[in-house]
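W.,

You were right to be curious about this one. When I first looked at the sequence I had no strong expectations either way, so I just let the prediction run and decided to look at it fresh. Below is the sequence, 460 residues in total, followed by the output.
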Amino acid sequence: MPDYSQKHPKITTLPLLTDQTELRDVLVRASRWKKPMLVIPSLATEYNLPETRPIFENIVRELKGAKYLQRIIIGLDQATEDDVALAREILLENGVKNYFLQWNDGPGFAGLYDLLKKNGFDLSTRGKGRNVFMSFGVALALEATAVGLLDADIRNFNRAQLDRIFFPVQVLNYQFSKAFYARWTPVGMYGRVKRLLVDPLLLALKRRFTDSNEEKMLRLIDFLSLFNYQLSGEIVISQELMQRMRVALNWGIEIFTLIEVYRKANQNQVAQVDFSHTAFEHKHQKVSGKSSGGLEKMSMDIIYTLLNALIIEEGLAVSEHFFRDLAITYESIAKDLIKKYSDTARFNNIPYDRDAEEEMVTGPLKDGVLNAADYFLEPRNLADKFLRFTSSNPEFREFNDQGLQQTILEVAEKIRKLPSVHAETPSWERVQEKCPDIVLGIIDVIEEEKKRWGPKGGSR
């Protein structure tokens, strides 16, 4: 039987206790005077390939039954004009007409990105974060009262799952809800970044801050630890909260969103929702591939996003010893958890490669924690070490005479002035303050795009 005990005085956990739960009719009644909308950020390759199209088509078929949705906004990235036409075709073939296709590479939205850039908002970093940010702007222009986010690669999606995450915000008037689920199949356990990085890193940070009595840091770590699946991409946000939230422009988007919720939401109005009775399955990331994706790149972004929140925004004082001790503690806790996952796999007769998971922890993940020191420690402190080293060894005398030490100082100062690699979007509240006509500009683009790609459009 599912555990339905509430373990926090503020955040609410809504478990699935029965297979008979049907929420759609309640949502339809609650939405008569509201405008809930759904955002699906999507790459063209998530529906224009033979292996991905059936997954996308299943999502669309299921969404046809979500009668409470005022609009479904599909943010298309890396899409050609033919790709947009294909998305429209899939939607109409499956009976979905309340859609809006947000073609990020088309002339209309390209003009909006240029306008934002002219007003000082750099959104040059492509990816899910930028896509979601613009979709939030579209939702605001369409006067959404709540906005849900759904990934486009869910292999076993059904409409009832979406009903569940909308219910707290749409019916119970929560500000934020987030899905949780189990990532496994009969052939193995997934959710490796959650299991091997996020959980042990949060536990390591909690141990460190408990020992040092740093209550401010502990409150954030405790909040993040309360979520059963911090990396789920399925959320619903109230319009008021959405306007004030920023969006991360890297793979740390889900952790960053929770940090924003911690800072800007009423925690009595935050819920996590049991998304599925069955194992949840979507695209699995490869371990390698630093430059273009994969688990390693995702993990690095999550480490840096979390530490950035603690160090840069919360004011945590750190040294090389902090990163070294954190890495050691993280590795120890991660290995303990891997033993528990191994036991869980044996108990359920599921294949489990313990060696591979330990190698991931002791290799790229632990290295990621250690390497974070290079970014977060003050460049001038690193420069001082180089200066002492080069001045105390006569082998460097010739190079010092040629300006080596002056170059070290100049490079340190240049690095100090570089923008953070942990870029995030501004909030839409800030955008509207600086660019008051931006919503009117979005409305103009929406109307033009509807003529081309709406159910009654189609002219190319």
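Here's what jumped out at me. Confidence is low (pLDDT under 50) at residues 289-293. And, maybe more interesting for your project: The CA atoms of residues 200 and 336 lie 9 Å apart.

Coffee later to discuss?

I.
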